[in-house]
Design goal:
This protein is mostly helical. It has one domain (about 1-220, about 285-310). It has 13 helices and 2 strands, in the order ααααββααααααααα. The chain has helices at about 1-10, 15-35, 45-55, 60-65, 105-125, 140-165, 170-185, 190-195, 200-220, 225-245, 250-265, 270-285, 290-300, and strands at about 75-80, 85-90. A two-stranded antiparallel ribbon has the order 1-2. It is globular, with a radius of gyration of 22 Å.
Length: about 325
């Protein structure tokens, strides 16, 4: 095993990352051929935004939930609202606005959007030759091409990880070996290649981009980045929260750094505060897709889509 890792990690960077992509693609393709689908589990909710918004031009997920037999949409599921456990049919689980619930945020769908549109374009082209592939967003081609997007973002995340760690003068071979070992030795390979419709692959990419951008443009420059860098950083931070709302906690790290700089350099406080205002403005604007979907589906810009059941820390129970 050690010889294999050394051989893989000794190749040039470009070939190394191409190898990682092909390795993940092989695993995903094998799983896809066995199961016949690429979207499953929590991914059903993350993915549903694409056909619903792009094809149906709405946020009514009923036809999405019933589009494919593997989605198990006709089966009851466990609901833990208010600490109790009971079965509820998915089509009857409607919000106060009359929509079917979708507790999964829209961020992954935004990242998948270019690949989903590409899949629809390919289907339109192939249908010119009489293939008659379904255009509801749940064809094998749509799922496969869109989920390849997750693999693409994983590789981008690995590239950013490599570039970031290399800034600390770590040997390139050690970095590549560490990346490969983390991939094959943890659950990363499950969520990156076997279940790419989950948000983990996209989350890995956007969090890595967040820290890479922050370190390169703010830490290394002693917070002297121009305004446009703050705008971009705000947009990246917003997209990070769109992928998984709990990622908002990560913004505390640059916030602590910013406060420390303000205390250290009070003479430049006005300029720094302007930069932070620009950042938070871009951040809030980037949150609009999530806030708008919550407003439409749940009737409120701020909500907990999963309900308060998971947050009843003082009423423990075993489901």
């Amino acid at each position: 095993m050690g010889k294999i890792i050394n051989k893989v990690c000794s190749v040039q960077n470009g070939k190394y990352f191409v190898f990682l992509f092909l390795f993940l693609l092989f695993l995903f393709s094998a799983r896809f051929m066995v199961t016949g689908y690429g979207v499953g589990g929590d991914g059903e909710g993350y993915y549903a935004y694409l056909p619903s918004v792009i094809i149906d031009n709405d946020l009514d997920f009923e036809n999405q939930y019933l589009s494919a037999p593997w989605l198990n949409a006709t089966n009851p599921f466990k609901d833990t609202e208010e600490g109790s456990v009971h079965l509820i049919h998915i089509s009857s689980n409607r919000t106060p606005t009359g929509y079917l619930t979708n507790p999964f945020p829209i961020g992954s769908a935004i990242l998948w959007l270019p690949f989903f549109i590409l899949s629809l374009a390919l289907i339109h082209f192939l249908n010119l030759f009489g293939l008659n592939i379904t255009l509801n967003g749940y064809s094998a081609l749509s799922q496969y091409v869109t989920m390849v997007g997750s693999l693409f973002y994983v590789i981008l995340g690995f590239i950013l990880t490599y570039k970031l760690i290399k800034k600390f003068d770590v040997d390139p071979g050690i970095i590549k070996s560490s990346i490969f070992l983390i991939l094959i030795g943890t659950f990363a390979i499950q969520y990156f290649a076997i279940e790419p419709s989950m948000s983990h692959a996209n989350d890995f990419f956007i969090i890595t981009l967040f820290f890479y951008y922050f370190y390169i443009n703010f830490i290394l420059t002693d917070n002297k980045a121009p305004y446009k860098k703050w705008i971009i950083f705000g947009a990246i931070s917003g997209l990070m929260v769109l992928v998984r709302p709990q990622n908002a906690l990560l913004i505390a790290l640059p916030l602590i750094y910013a406060i420390a700089l303000l205390i250290k350099n009070r003479s430049s406080a006005k300029k720094e505060l302007i930069n932070y205002a620009i950042f938070f403005s871009a951040f809030l604007i980037s949150l609009l897709p999530l806030l708008i979907t919550w407003k439409i589906i749940y009737g409120s810009f701020l909500t907990i889509p999963q309900g308060v059941g998971p947050l009843l820390y003082f009423s423990p129970y075993i489901p």
